[in-house]
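Model: Ready when you are.
Researcher: Fold this.
Model:
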Amino acid sequence: MNDFIQTFGVYLHTIAVYALPVLFAITLHEAAHAYAAKFFGDTTAYSQGRMSMDPFKHIDPFGTILIPVILYVATSGAFLFGYAKPVPVNFGQLRRPKRDMAWVALAGPGANFLMALIWLLLAIALQVMNVQEPFFHLMAQAGISTNLVIFAFNLFPIPPLDGGRIMISVLPHKYAYKLARIEPYGFFIVMALVMLRIINDWWMRPLMLVTGKVLQLIIWPLLALLQ
């Protein structure tokens, strides 16, 4: 019984640490898509109220809450997967659909990169202010890692992921058309690659490592100033 209570307490603590970082990460990711789509001419998401910072506009009860919690408990945190409600974009309404598609797709991961930087700055601020409470340090680290994960995962170049949209945008029409035909099966392809750890080991880890180095390079002047 004590083991169960202890394990349950660990789960609750982890959920508490990651709750805000995850909510901000998915909300700003989807809102960024909506803002970019409106900027380039498509008002579909705006008209449906999805150009919003309200997390409840973007949360999918099944994909954002139930699936991640079940996977976390079932695998003891070894495997996590979840998703938010995708922002509707009518690419045909964009002023220059093929070109603007890349910018709309890139806006989501771009928001996650920016949030990872903000969480990193918060982590530095906590150290500078000598905050002793471990919870806030853990939350800042969770914010960095969560946004790096979402950033890297969504840039994988298979539609309907953002990386797939970007590839369709930049490839010549012949190859873009062939890649776009994969989209109905893209989710299953991605899930299979995740379960085989191909995306994790050969795409996400290297990209997250490089992105982390870029973030460190960005904040280097600040660190040098504080020393």
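Researcher: Now this one.
Model:
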Amino acid sequence: MIRKAVIPAAGFGTRFLPASKSQPKEMLPIVDTPTIQYVVEEAVAAGITDILMIIGKGKRAIEEHFDRNFDLEQELEGKGKEAELAMIRRVSSIANVHFVWQKELNGLGDAVSYARCHIGDEPFALLLGDTIVESDSPVTSQLLQVFERYQESVVALEEVPMERVSRYGIMSGRSVAENLYMIDDFIEKPDMDEAPSNLAIAGRYIFTPEIFDAIAEVPPGKNNEIQLTDAMRLLVKTRAMYGWRFQGARYDIGNKLDFIKTNLVFGLKRPDMGDDLRAFIRELVGPPQV
């Protein structure tokens, strides 16, 4: 059984300046819920309630979000706002959330290495804190099922258009079953004519603890940082690694345009505002041009 999950959330989020100067990008809301809460909800839905977050300078708001706010609770209780009270109490009790600080921003691989003491010799789930994934069953649950069968690391894969492969880390490997691949390498942001596939790393992973040794061995890569993909490339040379092409939608909250698109998608699904928002968009766009 996978008992623990790791959520890295230490980056500055410079693409969201000035909003991210004092507000973690992971706390930017999708409608009315912080992005990182969706990530925690996915882990919990997969049966994982022991969660370690890797945070950095300026991320104290994440800690406060998952802690209790007794003053706010008292205010809501005094005003009889029972629904709101239950909602915020659930946030602070949904999981056993721990925090560790990445002392120096030195890449995603380095951030993951800070989880070593907490994870120990266990396999664990890794969920990126600025990526929301929607599917009929939680993608982390799908990865857990693959891990339970093969007992090796598993990476979520998203099929992307070939003309966009240069934006992603792309898998090289062979199909071993429907939607399941045996990975032999990863190519970071390849040109379209050099890409071994159109299956991109999608921000969800199950790792065996050997990933920590691989992270410790890799030299600094792009931007002189410790890259998780480089560690994965090293690990796959000695251990089997699988890729699971999930069915669903991934929302990357790491850039402004996708952030706005995600808010629209989630807002349109909301029964309390979907119809009004749809009408507003039609009014804003105007009638089709003939």
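Researcher: Key takeaway?
Model: The chain has eleven helices and 13 strands.
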